[in-house]
Each structure stands twice: as structure tokens, then as C-alpha cells.
Amino acid sequence: MMVALLPLVHFGFAALSLAWGRVTRELILLSLVFDAVLVGLLSAGLSQGKPLVIVLGGWEKGIGIELAADRFSLGLTILVLLLGGAVVAYLWHKRLRPYFFMLLHLLLGSVYTLVFARDLFNIYVTLELLTLVSFLLVGYERKPYQIWASLKYLLLASLGLGIYLLGVAIIYYHTGTLNLGLVAARLVDQPNAPWVLLASSLLVTGVAVKSGIFIFSLWLPAAHSSATPAVSALLSGLVIKMGVVVLFRLTSAFSLSLPLLVLG
């Protein structure tokens, strides 16, 4: 249950930040307290060494959205909690609109979702949400150079996610599923098929563009130099790192050595 609650807490608090705009700082602090409690419960749940898996909606695996936590996920949630706390402490006495805190909650909720996601399409949808939130955060102060940098980021990230989605379509066409565990099982007999190489290359390229991995980092300098210090910290500490996390998750189903070698 903690696996689903960590993202849901922030998606819920995002709505509350707009409804109760006068107490946004108290709300973000309360959400971090919830995070700390849930991360502690998650750590206790993983103490036996077995991953925690939940399929939302009561559907069977492969149909419903699967979220899973392991030791790697636990480490990431702790890092997200610490960085989120540091950013909130930095922003505590700054004058910010409730809109900013709504975006911050949406960003943290999206990051937690990516940490636990085990479904290629769920990863795509969450990356799209994270892209939109990052775009709005970079241009938060509405200065011309910030708007230009945020638009550049949105354009390139959307291009990357379009490439990723094409890879997802190929995977679904050949395997009939987007669950990473089931995809891995169905690729056992054909790990080096041409379509597998094509699909995995598209997935890697899309994630690389989204995450600013060299040589796909054209949007990075403008976004970091234009964003406020807190937003820049979120971009470098969380948003970009989520691409690396997604690549790591993809290795559970695909051999990415050749696509990474070809793409440099």
C-alpha cells in the first residue's frame, strides 16, 4: 500500500495547495512528514528482502498498472525525500504563489511514480506529466528568457517522448503486453531479434533526450541557467536522474548494451 500512497499523497496535496492557498507551506511540510512515515513503513516492509508489488484496480498483472518496490526503490525514495526537504527549507521564507507548490507536489508525485513503475506505458504517461510540470517550473517567473528556455525544453522533451512511444508501440505489437516482467518473459526466446533492437534503441533514445544525456543535452544549459535556483536543483537532482532510473528499469527486460553502444 505504501507503494501507491507515496505518489497519491502528493497528487492529493497538489489539489489542496490551490484550494487552501494560505497554508501551502504547512501543506508541503505535512506532505513531507507523510513521506517520511511511508518511507519508514516501506523500509520495514522490505526488511525480509522480498519486493512489494501492487496492481492497481484489482486487475491481474499485465492489465492493471503495476507498482513495485525493492531495495533500489527504497534508496531512491530516501533521496527524493531528502532533496524535497532541502528545497522546501530553501524556499520556506520566499514569497511564492500557491501555483508553485501545486507544481512542486505534482513533480514529487511523478518522481515517486517513476521510482515504482513497472509498465512501459505508465512510465510514458508519468514522463509526460513530469515534462509538463518541469516546463511550467522553468518558466514560473514568466521572464522572456525563462519562457524561451522552457519552450525549448518542452519541444525537445516531447520529441524524445514521441520516439519512446514509438518503441512502446513496437513492443506491444510483438508481445501483447507492456508490463516489463511479462515483456522479459516473452523475449527469452528472441532477445536479439531485429525488432527488439529497434524498439530498445527507440526507448533509449527517447529517455536520453528527456534526461539530457550526452549527446542529447541541447536543452540543459538554457533550462538550468534560466530557472530559479530551487527549480534548477530539482531539475538536476530529480528530473534528469529519473531518466537514468528508467534506463535501469529497462535492463530488466532488454539488453541495452548494443543500443547504448550505437547511440554513443
TrEMBL record:
Residue ranges crossing the lipid bilayer per the database entry: 72-92, 99-117, 123-141, 153-175, 195-219, 231-250
Xref: InterPro entries: CPA3_Na-H_Antiporter_D, ND/Mrp_TM
Protein name, UniProt field: NADH:quinone oxidoreductase/Mrp antiporter transmembrane domain-containing protein
Keywords carried by this UniProt record: Cell membrane, Membrane, Transmembrane, Transmembrane helix
Pfam families documented for this protein: Proton_antipo_M (PF00361)
Localization of this protein: Cell membrane
Signal peptide start-end: none
Organism annotation: marine sediment metagenome
Domain NADH:quinone oxidoreductase/Mrp antiporter transmembrane: 117-255
